[in-house]
Amino acid sequence: MATCDTHSTSLTKAPMRLPASIALAAVSLLPTASLAQSTFDLTVRGTSCNATQPSGSLHCTYRVGKDLEFSITSIGEPDATIAVLRANIDGDFFLRVGMIHGCAIVAAGAKAPKSASEPETSGALVSPVTGKVLRTWADCDKERLTGKRPGPS
User: Fold this and answer.
1) How far is CA 149 from CA 43, 65, 90, 130, 144, in A?
2) Phi/psi of residue 41, each to 5°?
3) Cβ distance 94 to 67 under 8 Å?
4) pLDDT digits over 2-30, tens only?
5) β-strands 81-86, 93-98: how paired?
6) Half-sphere CA count of 116, side-chain side, radius 13 A
7) The whole model's pTM is what?
8) Which of 60, 89, 103, 122 could hold 49 in an S-S bridge, CB 3.0 to 4.6 Å?
9) How many whole angstroms separate alpha carbon 27 and alpha carbon 135?
10) 91-148 pLDDT tens trace
11) Domain extents in the chain
């Protein structure tokens, strides 16, 4: 059986051994806000993509926090569309679009967790060319300029 070392509170300070499954279950019960996560991490985790039939066009939905849900349809196609399904600028996250770069910008709102609202962790970019969540404007520009479409590498 796999075990996980934890610290004991006894006077002897001997390590207490718990089965790894119990330790992992305890961690999974922690509230999500207590785990330090950037806006990028939350956006990646909230991404769900599928190909539509019969065209095979890629469609992705992005759910970030409690207040933001948006989708991009026909990813990589000239008629790709960004649709805001739910947003609240006074909530935890909202969406902007950078016209010059062509990416959707996931921004931390007033109620975002502190780990997602620090300047270095407060943004994520989503490319309508590939559907990928990106960290920098340079990455967004590269995808837009090279026109790399989703599909087999």
Assistant:
1) 20, 28, 34, 5, 9
2) -60, -45
3) yes
4) 434 333 333 334 444 444 434 333 333 34
5) unpaired
6) 27
7) 0.70
8) 60
9) 27
10) 999 999 888 888 999 998 889 888 776 666 667 999 999 999 999 988 988 888 887 6
11) 33-146
